[in-house]
Design brief:
0% strand, globular, mainly alpha, 213 residues
């Protein structure tokens, strides 16, 4: 069936999003095991883009942008249109673009700052702004789209997982805020919890769309 068929395009986009999520996680895990061995508990995921294998993480950031676009296409072609759905898809695109920006503006590593959420170079400042914008936009998008899902009968089987992963995302964002003050040694952990919420939502909803007939 050609991809000019909306149903074929919807299914293909959902599958691309799911594969993208799996590859993203696998690459993250492999990079975590390679030098310079950043701590997944205390150090941000962005640090993986600084080092001998940093270029791989930059490709991973671009991959995240790609599967964000893919899930946007899949959701757009599913169910009825609504303002919540449209707003959510636009915000999710902003999150994807922000991820692509990270690939070209590495974070500051090894610079003495009073907080892991501070930076001292212009490039690092762009990275921090893009990362913050991406997380906030993606989380707001998932909140809106999950609300829309509760009125979308064709994806009713995805509602539970979507709600669960949105909860993880919210917990992760609250943890990131706390890491700037009372939990400075746990930035990496709470950031990854937030990321797990976003990635899990994309995979679960993509799977639900892929199974539609």
């Amino acid at each position: 069936m050609p991809l000019t068929d909306p149903l074929a395009l919807r299914r293909a986009s959902a599958l691309v999003a799911m594969i993208g999520v799996v590859l993203y996680v696998l690459i993250d895990v492999v990079l975590q095991l390679l030098p310079p061995h950043y701590s997944p508990i205390s150090e941000a995921e962005s640090n993986l883009a600084v080092g001998p294998y940093g270029w791989v993480m930059n490709l991973n950031f671009l991959g995240r942008a790609v599967f964000c676009v893919a899930i946007v296409v899949a959701v757009h072609l599913t169910g009825l249109p609504s303002r919540r759905k449209t707003a959510g898809l636009v915000l999710l695109l902003v999150g994807g673009v922000s991820s692509a920006v990270l690939a070209f503006f590495p974070t500051d590593v090894g610079i003495a700052v009073s907080s892991t959420l501070q930076t001292q170079t212009p490039v690092g400042q762009v990275h921090l702004i893009a990362a913050t914008t991406g997380f906030i936009a993606a989380l707001l998008a998932l909140l809106l789209l999950t609300s829309w899902l509760h009125g979308c009968d064709v994806l009713r089987h995805s509602r539970g997982w979507a709600t669960l992963f949105v909860g993880l995302g919210i917990a992760g964002v609250l943890g990131i805020v706390a890491s700037a003050t009372v939990l400075p040694g746990y930035l990496g952990l709470v950031e990854r919890v937030c990321l797990l919420g976003i990635l899990g939502w994309v995979f679960a909803v993509g799977d639900g769309i892929r199974r539609l007939r």
